[in-house]
Amino acid sequence: MRARKSVSRCAKPSQLGQTRNIYAEELFPGRGSELSNLWRTRQFEYTWLRTVCGHYADFWRVTEDALVFATNILKLELSLEKRQRLMQAYLELKSFPDALPALKSLRAAGIRLAFLSNLTSYMLDSAIKSSGLEGIFEPSLSTDRVRVYKPDPRTYRPCRTSDFAKASSDKSKGILRPGFWQVSP
């Protein structure tokens, strides 16, 4: 019997930046890209600051706080309707066109797939469903479980202790570090 392989990557296959830019441009013509870039930058900064300072808030909250900050800095009027529409982008992610065939090919080759994300479980489930990637990944692990954000080493503990890692191999050290593909027979 052939041993199963596994691949884990601490990233998600989506076109989030494009989706966010499209919505931002629709709501703030001529300023969408600028808003999207500042929003994303502040989002990273907030996750890092919250982790370093020990003041956790889930990624939905961090994302909304970053959006409010970005619109304030750019002096854009963020109505409740616009805020909800922009936040909805995180629940309506689409995958790159080549993602599904490539991932199906990996699964067909016996490779198990998983990922770790800063998104909350609800955001992950919504994004996976919206992107048409249901059933492709075994676990989708959220940093929400450990209440800190990547790249803090604590975020990788669920990867190490998940059933996925235990079943993959005792060589699953690759999922202990960010940005590292782990392939094991």
Topology:
Elements: E1 5-9, H1 16-27, H2 32-53, H3 59-73, H4 80-88, H5 99-108, E2 111-117, H6 121-130, E3 140-142, H7 157-161, H8 163-168, E4 182-184
Parallel strand pairs: 1-2, 2-3
Antiparallel strand pairs: 1-4
Helix pairs in contact: 1-2, 2-3
Kindly summarize this structure in a few lines.
By secondary structure, this protein is of the alpha/beta class.
Protein described:
This protein is an alpha/beta fold and 185 residues long. Helix content is 48%, strand content 10%. It is built from eight helices and four strands. Helix 6 (121-130) links the parallel strand 2 and strand 3. Helix 1 packs across helix 2 and helix 2 crosses helix 3 (59-73). The radius of gyration is 18 Å and the shape is flat. The chain starts with a strand and ends with a strand.
